[in-house]
Design goal:
337 residues; alpha+beta; 4 domains; eight-stranded mixed β-sheet; two-stranded antiparallel ribbon
């Protein structure tokens, strides 16, 4: 059973790495095609490495809009694989793994910066899980568990041979039989996973005043509540929340003032999503808005197209942008000849 589960996870579960962008021409719905080559990929990787932070994968681009923006995962590194394109090594959250394992999410959408002169991709801002990607023919993060996806090729062919043996199927079993047996096994595994584990004995649960079916999180919450008076904890929590709110509002005001002063945004853009982004995620506001050369960046449906300056020029404005993105002068000159 463990072997079957491991093979199924490799075929359909949340992957540890996946293709972010293919090499060459990239078709975008309703837009001219974009392009990615090795030089552009190296620039993307250098900018990512220079920041020293993991790149967020959120849900439906919530990082760029108002409200909460929980992470679905974190990109730990980016790797160029030549003809296979640009790949990401990722660490998923528990909730995102559940979405991907159950195939409730299958695709993703990158937020990237293109050079207007040739629409070459030169920077990757972040990614979002979505089922409506803007890029055409995008390779899904997880494959559909359906007949048309079971096409034995290379490594997959070996998996199918193992599955036939583990599931007790004949060596000449058709793809339909493999699909049927796999789906039955998946359903059984899901049933086993829903069985609640034993958290504590009945005597302990009774002493804590917990229900017999209480889970681990509930027991931890009850124990934690016994360690400090509830009123004190509530007051401290409110004071900390209020302090965080004031600090966030002060930082938001400073960021918006600076962006308007330098002509990197407009009141209309701020009213639409800029103010909320500056408050909820100031670091993303710095990357998306303050890294723009004055009056030269136009956001279009999650894809930021930069107007041309003198190709390869390294003026004060470009140096300021490079500094924000962690790109030194030598790296910039190397990829902007």
């Amino acid at each position: 059973m463990d072997m079957i589960f491991a093979i199924l996870k490799e075929m359909t579960g949340a992957p540890e790495e996946f293709q972010v962008l293919p090499e060459g021409q990239i078709e975008i719905n309703g837009e001219p095609p974009a392009h990615l080559d090795e030089a552009g990929a190296n620039a993307i990787i250098a900018a990512f490495s220079g920041r020293g932070n993991d790149m967020v994968i959120d849900y439906e681009h919530q990082t760029l809009t108002a409200g909460q923006s929980p992470a679905a995962g974190w990109i730990k590194s980016l790797v160029w694989k030549g003809k296979e394109g640009l790949w990401a090594v990722v660490e998923w959250t528990k909730k995102a793994k559940e979405y991907l394992d159950s195939r409730e999410y299958r695709y993703f959408s990158p937020v990237m910066i293109l050079r207007a002169s040739d629409r070459k991709i030169v920077q990757l801002i972040n990614l979002a899980l979505t089922n409506s990607p803007a890029i055409n023919n995008l390779k899904p993060i997880v494959a559909k568990l359906q007949h048309e996806t079971i096409k034995p090729q290379g490594k997959e062919s070996e998996m199918f041979e193992k599955l036939k043996k583990l599931l007790g199927l004949a060596a000449d079993a058709a793809e339909e039989k493999i699909t049927e047996a796999v789906e039955i096994t998946v359903n059984k595994l899901k049933t086993l996973e829903t069985v609640a584990p034993v958290v504590a004995c009945k005597e302990v649960l009774d002493a804590l005043g917990a229900k017999a079916e209480a889970g681990k999180d509930e027991v931890i919450r009850i124990v934690a509540s016994l360690k400090a008076p509830a009123d004190v904890a509530k007051v401290l929590s409110l004071e900390v929340a209020e302090l965080k709110k004031k600090i966030s509002e002060m930082e938001q005001s400073d960021l918006i003032t600076l962006a308007l002063k330098e002509g990197k945004t407009s009141p209309e853009e701020l009213d639409k999503w800029g103010r909320d982004l500056a408050l909820k995620s100031p670091e993303q506001f710095k990357v998306i808005v303050l890294s723009r050369p004055a009056g030269s960046v136009i956001p279009v449906d999650g894809i930021i197209v930069a107007k041309d300056s003198v190709q390869g020029a390294l003026d004060d404005t470009q140096r300021a942008v490079n500094k924000m993105m962690g790109i030194d002068d030598e790296t910039f000159k190397k990829y902007n000849k």
